[in-house]
Amino acid sequence: MKYTSLVTSLLGIGLLAASSHSAAVSILARRARLPVDMTIQEHGHETAVDMAKVPDAVKAAAAKILGKLDGCTASMEKGEDTVLYEIASAGAPAMKVTVKLTAAGQLAEVERGIGAEKLPAGTLASIQKQYPGAAIASAEEVETHYFEVKLEKSGKRVIVSPSGKLWSDEEGEEEGEEEGEEEEGR
Q1: Which of 38, 100, 149, 171 could be cross-linked to 108 through a Cys-Cys bond (beta carbons 3.0 to 4.6 Å apart)?
Q2: What CA–CA distance (Å, rounded) separates 164 from 82?
Q3: What is residue 167's three-state secondary structure?
């Protein structure tokens, strides 16, 4: 499966419908055929951090997306061997924007709160089918950033998070071929 097309589907909607964020991310990852550990949730512990103690590179990168950081909150997630900073804008959940960045300021994830009425019709239909009668508490549009690297000799494609976590490796595919596609004449 090509991860470039997969990101388009994962850029979709992260839902928080009567469940925790990590559970919603896990559901989305499974449905998109992503390994659950390919999500930004790196099983770390999140701790509030004073904005004055956030690295300058993180603040600069966050400001490019959020604008002024006045009123923003910061936290830090420590994983096994990674540290991610989360900077969240102030405001109502449907207007909130949160960015996750490495200590060097590399963007890992952007979450944008959206109103339930702005969810695509297919998304709403799927939720109602899977969870009949469920009310949507909040919704986020989630952009997960990663790097896809093709190795020269082996032809493998390696998927790596901005924090350096290896998410996946797979044998190289011929250009134009994706999983499930066959060449003509076979």
Answers
A1: 100
A2: 8
A3: strand
Tokens of 91: 């405001």
What ranges do the domains of the chain cover? 3-170
Phi, psi angle pair for 114, to nearest 5° = -135, 155
What amino acid occupies position 45?
A: H
| Other residues' Cβ atoms within 10 Å of the Cβ of residue 161 | 24
Does residue 80 sit in helix, strand or coil?
A: coil
Are 44 and 77 contacting, i.e. CB atoms less than 8 angstroms apart?
yes
pLDDT tens-digit profile of 45-74? 789 999 999 999 999 999 999 999 999 999
Q: Which residue type occupies 36?
A: V
| Segment holding 68, helix H or strand E | none
pTM, whole model, 2 decimals? 0.67
